Give the backbone structure.
Amino acid sequence: MSVRHDGSRPMDRRVRLGGQPVDTYPALPPEAERGSVRRITVVGEEILSRPCREVTEFGTPELSALIDDMFLTMHVADGAGLAANQVGVDLRLFVYDCPDDEGIRHVGHLINPVLHLPDPGDRRLVDESEGCLSVPGATMAVPRTDRAVAHGFDKDGSPLVIEGTGYFARCLQHESDHLVGHTYLDRLATRDRKDALRQMADRREDVFARRAAKAAGLGR
């Protein structure tokens, strides 16, 4: 716990796991310890441009293994979030390990998410740099609202409500976009989209090499 200098009530700075504070949490999530690295899809592949299917079976070994693999794949790629279609799986699911603007770490997964944003009159849009593991090496400024709430389920079918502010709100919006077949490139003007694709063409091989080196360092 730490006290904010503006005199407001103390802020609980514990890691939020599935939206709930926990006293301790490892740097590498347990799911990643169990997982295997999967290939990350790249913009232009068809699975990234169509809506994903609802998850209808919960509590299965296959679903747990997918989540484990997604956590490790995200970690190896230095990501803050990863959607299932980014590892070639057509399901409404994403994982995240992302700080908010206060430096509080949020970790978890969300299945069949429904995203809720503030009403238009209450929204504050923030135009900040954004990247995507499926657009390797590119970053562009993307306007996103600074608050978001996502409703969904965990792998056992229990309901979850995940609230995000700042950078974590951006993450929730970014990953929810993936599940309806969009990347952040779809939110850009034509000129900016072309710029992002040029960045990707110039840098993607370096990004792939860094990911491979990190996976090798983990013995994966």
Observations:
- The mean pLDDT is 95.
- The two ends are 36 Å apart (CA to CA).
- The chain has four helices and nine strands.
